[in-house]
Amino acid sequence: MHRVIVFSRSLDRYSYNLLSQLSLSRDYRVLVCVEEKNEWTRLGSERLEFHELGKSAHRLDASMIFRMRGLIRDFNPQACLCYTSRSLFLALMVRFLFKIQIPIIGTRGAIGGMSAFNPLDWITYLADRYGTIVAFSKAIERELSRQRGRLLNLNSTHFQTIYQGYSVLNTDFLFQPIERTQEDKPIFKVLCIANDRPIKGLQLLLESVSVPVLLGLGIEFHIVGRVGDEMQRKTQGLVSDAPQVFFHGFQSDVRPFLREADLYVQPTLHPGEGIGNAIAEAMSAGLPVLTSDVGGAQELVLDGVTGLLFKTGDCVSLAQGIRQLRLDPVLRAQMAATARQRLDQHFSLEGEVEQYHRLLQHWIER
């Protein structure tokens, strides 16, 4: 039985499912070390053990380095998997300082926020190292390679794309879709789940409200997430037949909003989402998706098949996409059905487990 140690801030639905299936179906013993426990670490699983590390103060937290070194020494793993940049950096420091010969696999779920000229980013993600960086989309892998090429004009083989197992959403009764009627509806609900960070594009979404092609179509925008007062004030003074905008704040459970919606919109700006968990959840809930033509979201949403792509940063293009799907309920239903199939075929948990198994075997057997 192979032993793998995992370091992360916490677990989410996708990392828990991966590690559980890896331990059960591929005969791994997995020790998961998290800074704080949550609902997923409390579930437990056969051959999946949990240890609470406590929070690290910063990337050079000496006490955390010694705690991680002790866990690695006692568990004696054959590979190490890190889910956050901080845990990856600290694990690399443990390997370097204590001469521990263990392959270290890191993950990267975001495109932006990284530079070849940042020494910590270079050490963590870009330098030649004994291990692999798993990118959650090809867009992330391309950006990692691009950043590395800014300093070294060399191709790197230590980046690999492995998609998360979004297919589990299709078998989770919590995300089962409601039956989407192909008849026209008097009120058409457009859902966006995002906080008002600039990259999320909420400003663009609100600008589209005033585009003439959306007037008089009975459209409602429902925004779920933390949105400041200044952003909310931008919707004041709209003409009477413009789409209405409703802000629902942060919601720990977004499923009721997914059930009520007719269309999911993700108006991300450059450089785009790493992949888009919210998009996958909307697809599984039986919603067509409209998103910008940038980043990893394009790998989830096939333009004209599972949803539509609009020109990044163009509120008119966004509004035209909403109008097209508002006026074509048959197309919406077709896209929604195809979207769920795409998750099963191209983002399966079984495929993710098999790829991680092969990657771990590659490093363990070296």
Structural features, described:
This protein is an alpha/beta fold and 366 residues long. The chain has two domains: 2-165 and 348-364, Rossmann fold, CATH 3.40.50; 169-346, Rossmann fold. Helices cover 38% and strands 17% of the residues. The chain is built from 14 helices and 13 strands. Strands 3-2-1-4-5-6-7 form a seven-stranded parallel β-sheet, with helices on both faces. A six-stranded parallel β-sheet has the order 10-9-8-11-12-13, sandwiched between helices. Strand 5, helix 4 and strand 6 form a beta-alpha-beta unit.
Compact overview of the structure:
With about 375 residues, the protein is α/β, with parallel strands linked by helices. The chain has two domains: about 1-165 and about 350-365, 3-Layer(aba) Sandwich (Rossmann fold), CATH 3.40.50; about 170-345, 3-Layer(aba) Sandwich (Rossmann fold).
